[in-house]
Amino acid sequence: MSEDARKTLAVALTYDAPQAPRVVASGRGLVGQRIIEAAQAHGVPIQKNAVLAEALSSIELETEIPERLYVAVAEILAFVLRAAEDGQRR
Which among 23, 20, 67, 78 has a CA at the least distance from the CA of 45? Predict the structure, then answer.
């Protein structure tokens, strides 16, 4: 495994309104790579944000994100929605 792969951190979120988004997967190294590969295989848009990923990685799985991260996660959700809309237009 390359040094970059060992450093890989990935966090997956789910969002079912009206609840807050929840962390459903988080991992470093090989686990992080697998989270990314699963997202790619299912056409889930990926956005790189190391600072946010680090903050989200400390949240227990299946736990709603804390209010202090709402704005940052809302930006990610907006990115995902735009990417989905762009994909539907093609």
Answer: 78
